Amino acid sequence: MTTPQLSMLKPGEILPALEIPITATQIVSGALASQDFEDVHHDKAAANGKGTPDIFMNILTTNGLVGRYLTDWAGPQSSIQRIKLSLGVPNFPGDCMVLSGAVVSIEDAVVEVSFKGKNGLGNHVSGSAWLQLPTSPEQEND
Predict the structure, then answer these.
(1) Which architecture characterizes domain 6-140 according to CATH?
(2) Angle between helices 59-74 and 24-33 (to 10 degrees)
(3) pLDDT tens digits for 7-63?
């Protein structure tokens, strides 16, 4: 994986999409790994009892997947400075979330990216992130 060359980035540049199949195992393990023990993230009967058709992904797992998407694009020499996100429709097992994004602005080696994650029901997540990229070509592909 290589870090994009800062000098080559322009506002409006589209990031490559990333498809993430949503599985029950992913939802349960993400919730447990983030110490979110709410039953709607691991117990289908409890989720049904609270009005949803199945277990659904928690916000911490979503945030982790967004972070993965951004750093996969920005490369190993980048760092996420800030993320602002909002949840929309749930991610249920059996669906697929497609993450997409675009460069909004670039200032002092900090790239602002808007992103969204869409599934079969609509937008699961949307927001903005600010990533610090290396400023010299030698740092970009170390």
Answers:
(1) Roll (3.10)
(2) 100
(3) 899 999 999 999 999 999 999 999 999 999 999 999 999 999 999 999 999 999 999
